[in-house]
Amino acid sequence: MFAVGRILVDGGLSSSVIHQDEPPTRHDVRSVLRTQTVAAVALAAAVAVASSTLNGSMPSWFSTSAVSLAAITLLTVPLTTVSTALLERTLSFKRLGAVSLIQPCLLAVGSGVALPAFPTTTGALAVFAISHLVAVPAYLAASGIGVRGGGTRGVRSRWHFGLPIAGGQLVSQVKDGINPLVLSWVLGITAVGYISWAQQLAVVATYAVAALSSIYFPLLARLRNQPERFARAVSAAAFWANATVAPVSVVIAVNTYGLVHLVYGDIWDPAVPTLRLLMVANLVAPVSAVLLSAFNALGRPRVGLAYTVAWAVATWALVPSLSAAIGVEGYGVANILVSAISLGLLWQARGFVDATSMTRAWLPWVVASASVALPWWAVSTLGDGGSATGTLVHLAMSAGVYCASLVLVCRTEVRALRKALFDR
Questions:
Q1: Torsion region of 354: left, alpha or beta (phi above 0 gives left; psi -120 to 50 gives alpha)
Q2: pLDDT tens profile 361-387
Q3: How far is the C-alpha of 137 from the C-alpha of 129, rounded, in Å?
Q4: CA 15, 17, 22 angle in degrees (round to 5)?
Q5: What does the alpha-carbon distance between residue 251 and residue 91 come to, in Å, rounded to a whole number?
Q6: 196, burial (CB in 10 Å: exposed 0-12, middle 13-18, buried 19+)
Q7: Checking phi first, is residue 350 left (phi over 0); if not, alpha (psi -120 to 50) or beta?
Q8: Residue 25's beta-bridge partner residues?
Q9: How would residue 424 be classed by pLDDT, with cut points 50, 70 and 90?
Q10: pLDDT > 90: what percent of the chain?
Q11: Are the C-beta atoms of 99 and 141 separated by less than 8 Å?
């Protein structure tokens, strides 16, 4: 609920702060904060009233106080989103990283204080609320950023840019929320458990891309009026996004049973084929994330909204039908077909990025495949492929071979990254 509420309160206004050409003025910041605060108060009040009204007709596990606490937590959203937007706009990634680390620390403190005293849903929500006190350090971190005086940009023009972004985020949340309900109806609760486990493990490969997504947009937005630098930045971002996802995806796909037995045991074996299919879907996910940020940076957020809606519609159409026809593996096949829609992004991106350089963005997948396959063959030849020791040896060898191969095969990209990071 909080994720949806956060999107509704933000309304894409924080993205408009990052994207605007001129540095934000004090009037800009106050205008966005005022609008988001009104939305947060209205939404929190509506949720509190609705939960109180429906309390008598809700199941026994429903907690009015827990929902009310979650609603109150929405009041921290404006301060957090605007402060984070200012940090991202000025590329203050050290401060942003520090703020990001504070939230899990608050969560750990809250877990130690609130849950022992209130070991109920209310206690869990209290921990959640405590973790969102990160709004205070976010504000303090952003307060050092110079914001000039002057005129203000209208909220209406901000919504023109931000609402499609918020709409895409909302559609994505609804899509992910409905999927488990549809699957439980089609396949049953046990199958949903297998699919959820496979999905969570598949997402591990894209953690780095998810973390970097907040960097792509402000970086590319700065370069949108410099076509050549913008094209190089998009190609480099796509390459390194694949470079982080490819080795993890290939290792999991090749060594699935060994990793699963080592960490989880054989209870999850029925979900392994689905997990491997989800790894295939990762082929286009990193580049899709980069290109969506690129279109947003160019002031074309409706492109992202259109693709998000297309992914949602395709998911709702393919997941139930293929799951009913094939079983648990149908979910993986549906994800591959849905991800194929992302190829349209490449076609639309040809107007601002070179096709040859984007082709090189998939080179890490070739390097990763060879780097994982050769150690796997060596370990299997020694007859130790399926054991825990063999799995660990294979992981260590694959990591070493991949890093060395990437430096040798992709020297141009490595030199560019080294120059960008260390100015050499």
A1: beta
A2: 888 999 999 888 888 888 777 766 566
A3: 15
A4: 135
A5: 33
A6: middle
A7: alpha
A8: 148
A9: very low
A10: 14
A11: yes
Read off the pLDDT of residues 282-309 as tens digits, 9 standing for 90 and up.
888 899 999 999 999 999 999 999 999 9
pLDDT digits (tens, 9 = 90+) for 144-202: 665 665 556 677 888 889 999 999 999 998 888 888 888 888 888 888 888 888 888 88
- 353 confidence band (pLDDT: 50, 70, 90): confident
Q: Would you tell me how many other CB atoms lie within 10 Å of the CB of residue 324?
A: 13
Q: 187: part of which helix (H) or strand (E)?
A: none
CA gyration radius, the chain:
23
Q: What is the pLDDT of residue 171?
A: 92
The structure tokens listed for 189 are: 């609760």
Contact 352, 237 (CB under 8 A): no
Q: What is the pTM of this model?
A: 0.85
Residue 192: how many other CB atoms lie within 10 Å: 20
Burial class for 277, CB neighbours closer than 10 Å (0-12, 13-18, 19+): buried
Q: What percent of the chain clears pLDDT 70, i.e. is strictly above it? A: 86
Tokens 């953690």 belong to 207
SS3 277: helix
Looking at residue 309, what is its pLDDT? 95
Q: Cβ distance 104 to 48 under 8 Å?
A: no
Tokens at 337, concatenated: 């077909």
Residue 84: exposure state from Cβ atoms within 10 A (0-12, 13-18, ≥19): buried
Q: Any idea where the domains of the chain sit in the sequence? A: 2-153, 171-422
**Cα separation, 232 vs 240, whole angstroms:** 12
d(CA 286, CA 1): 27
Contact 7, 166 (CB under 8 A): yes
Handedness of CA 385, 390, 395, 398 (dihedral sign): negative
Q: What is the mean pLDDT of the chain?
A: 82
- State the DSSP string of 371-395: HHHHHHHHHHHTT-TTSHHHHHHHH
